[in-house]
Amino acid sequence: MSSEQVSLPDGAVVTLQEMTKADRDAVVAFAKSLPQEDLLFLSMDITRGKVVDEWIKNIEAGRTASLLAYDSEGLVGYANVHRNATPWMRRVGEIRVNVAPAYRSRGLGRLLINRIFDVARDLELKKIIAQMTADQRGAQNAFRKLGFVPEAMLADFVVDRNDVTRDLVMMTFDVDGHTDQAGDVVQI
Predict the structure, then answer these.
(1) How far apart are CA 43 and CA 153, in angstroms?
(2) What confidence tens digit (pLDDT) does each residue in 119-163 have?
(3) Cβ contacts of residue 7 below 8 Å, gap of 6+?
(4) Do residues 121 and 175 lie in contact, with contact meaning Cβ atoms separated by under 8 Å?
(5) How many whole angstroms separate alpha carbon 139 and alpha carbon 143?
(6) HEC readout, the chain
(7) pTM of the predicted model, to two decimals?
(8) Most buried of the four, 49, 105, 131, 157, by CB within 10 Å?
């Protein structure tokens, strides 16, 4: 995929493209434009150029695949899937998605996730993990609608930017549609 223009359900047009090092400054600017509450929950501080440089190194090394969405004003969202380098987890990828507040509930997040699922299939991943804090109910609901299942909640597992501990929810999606899950869904 070089770049592709896509219309959202409300008629807005965005351009999707794979992330390269040329997108570094746009990613940093996007992150800095996010509300403070959103920044509390980022798994890495992408407001810092050095952190985005590491992300780019992961892309170049083939550990991460990232899709970006631009409108006429700039970057408005991204989705990526990161593969774990541990051999016994080589078929598992972690998905990360972030959409600018102005584009939430407009179909961009779903579009990015659908496209990153295609990438995950091309990478022959079998499971996708999404992680979020227990108080991110909107994100949990969005991932449930996409077919993700809550599998674990880890108490006081993460510390946000304000040094507050939070519970971490791990949700998974079985790419092939099959699962070896037994028992009931974890209650959160």
Answers:
(1) 16
(2) 998 998 999 999 988 988 888 888 898 889 999 999 999 887 788
(3) 13
(4) yes
(5) 6
(6) CCEEEEECCCCCEEEEEECCHHHHHHHHHHHHHCCHHHHHCCCCCCCCHHHHHHHHHHHHCCCEEEEEEEECCEEEEEEEEEECCCHHHCCEEEEEEEECHHHCCCCHHHHHHHHHHHHHHHCCCCEEEEEEECCCHHHHHHHHHCCCEEEEEEEEEEECCCCCEEEEEEEEEECCCCCCCCCCCCCC
(7) 0.85
(8) 131
Measured CA to CA, the distance from residue 50 to residue 64 in angstroms comes to: 16
Query: What is each CA distance from 11 to 19, 134, 180, in whole angstroms?
Result: 24, 33, 40
Amino acid at position 111, single letter: L
Strands 165-174 and 149-159, sheet pairing: antiparallel
Distance CA 52, CA 144 (A): 29
As a whole number of angstroms, the distance between CA 102 and CA 99 comes to: 8
User: Encoding tokens for residue 108?
Assistant: 């961009």
